[in-house]
Amino acid sequence: MPTSSGLFPRNFKKTFPIATRGEGCWIIADDGRRFLDASGQAAVVSIGHGVPEIGRAMAGQSSQIAFAHTSQFHTTAAETLASRLLAMAPPNFRNGGRVYFTSGGSEATETAIKLARQFHLECGQKDRYRVLSRRQSYHGSTLGAMTVSGNVARRAPYEPLISEWGHIAPCFCYHCPFDKTFPQCELACADDLQAHLGGQARDQAAAFIFEPVVGATLGSAVPPEGYAARITEICRKNGILLIADEIMTGMGRTGKPFAVQHWSVEPDMILVGKGIASGYAPLGAVLASARVVEAFERGSGGFLHGFTYQAHPVSTAAGNAVLDYLEAHKLFDRVNAAGQELRCALPLLQSHPNVGEVRGLGLLLGVEFVKNKATRQPFPREQNIAEKIRQACLEEGVLTYPTQGCVDGLRGDHILLAPPFTISTAECSLIARALLAAAARVFSS
Ligand SMILES: Cc1ncc(COP(=O)(O)O)c(C=O)c1O
């Protein structure tokens, strides 16, 4: 039955339960149904739902000072969170880096695009404006973020509104765009950036943006060893900035504070969102490295950009409280162990003839469904397998995050598993059981 409220829904053909309470890894609806949140909603919730300390910290901040415009004031909440994020970041952020807080991921991407453009203006390189990116990627839903996103289905309706700055090949070994295998491929997908920079982008490129582990679009595709380092080297050689979109992978989700730290690379900017406040408040951020900041300090002194709600005191207070909780409960250290427990619960699913691959890093896992396991052939898009799996899991009381298009932007079905870091062994088993039941139901019909 279509929803009859005044709220503009994501889909007019669907009904949505009313969420009334959250407890740990569970969401409870107004009709009493309990759902196990195996996807942390959209890879957002890290510390679990309903942690009272966070609400208390937000109320405390709100009763002291709820809002102060950043053109007139800074607040301790924002200053503190900025320092803490920089201390967790790679070394090139630590002495002289700065944090620009936004209200979410897409605003962080927009900010990074403009920061890259103005960085080059500050350095006297006025032709540089293109932010290169990859096909099969997602960086947000605002128009600048859509321009760099390479998600065919999400771009399609808005093509007339968005530019084309250049997209290179994705890094996706399970469906390699070059039909090669690592390591014989010699990282052809990374070298595609250099090939691209030899063309039109040579003098106009400002930056390259990438998801270190591709989340929703490819179902947690982890690059092979050497990819991130090769990309960094190419960016340096060509004088362009490297932007790591860690909106999904950041704040511990893959087992390190930031996913780039798995490969010890030092991007010029890191974007965060989602887990930064674990969903307790709308918050995102751009971490700008010392080199980027220096260009502004030496140059014009001001970034021509701004949002009314940037560095919001209550949101940044939530960010600090979430970080306190992660540290006090040693949850950053729990991610790898919990990720292993979840994987260990999935072997029966993995051996299912229609499960092509279970992949990922830490607590960001993807399960891809295929028509033919030997050839990795996807199902036709019209069969809508990912959505059917989501629906079947929902009927088992488990929430997952489905996407289509991992093969070529249209075909290819996968779901994302990204539960809170507090997930227990018993809850991992419940997720595995629900997925098996869902696969049995969807593939026998
Ligand atoms: C990698 C990545 N970048 C950007 C975004 C956009 O973030 P938001 O939805 O908070 O605007 C997302 C959201 O899914 C994302 O996964």
Structure description:
With 445 residues, the chain is an alpha/beta fold. It has 2 domains: 19-51 and 330-444, Aspartate Aminotransferase, domain 1 (Alpha-Beta Complex), CATH 3.90.1150.10; 56-328, Type I PLP-dependent aspartate aminotransferase-like (Major domain) (Aspartate Aminotransferase, domain 2), CATH 3.40.640. The chain is built from 14 helices and 15 strands. The protein has a 7-stranded mixed β-sheet, with helices on both faces. It is globular. It starts with 18 loop residues before the first strand and ends with a helix. The mean pLDDT is 97. Residues 42, 104-106, 109, 138-140, 211, 215-216, 245, 247-248, 273 line the site of pyridoxal-5'-phosphate.
State the fourth-level CATH superfamily of the largest domain.
Answer: Type I PLP-dependent aspartate aminotransferase-like (Major domain)
Unreliable segments of 5+ consecutive residues: none
Could you say what the CATH architecture of the largest domain is? 3-Layer(aba) Sandwich
Strand content is 15-25%
The averaged pLDDT comes out at 97
What letter string, H or E per element, gives the SSE order? Answer: EEEHHHEHEHHEHEHEEEHHHHEEHEEEH
What is the β-strand count? 15
CATH topology of the largest domain: Aspartate Aminotransferase, domain 2
The unique ligands bound to this protein are: pyridoxal-5'-phosphate
Most strands sheet: 7 strands, mixed
What is the tally of helical segments?
14
Head-to-tail CA distance between termini: 24 Å
What spatial order of strands do you see in the largest sheet? 4-10-9-8-7-5-6
Helix content: 25-40%
Radius of gyration using CA atoms only:
21 Å
The overall number of domains is 2
Give the oligomeric state of the chains in this entry, treating copies of one chain as homo and distinct chains as hetero. single chain
Structural class: alpha/beta
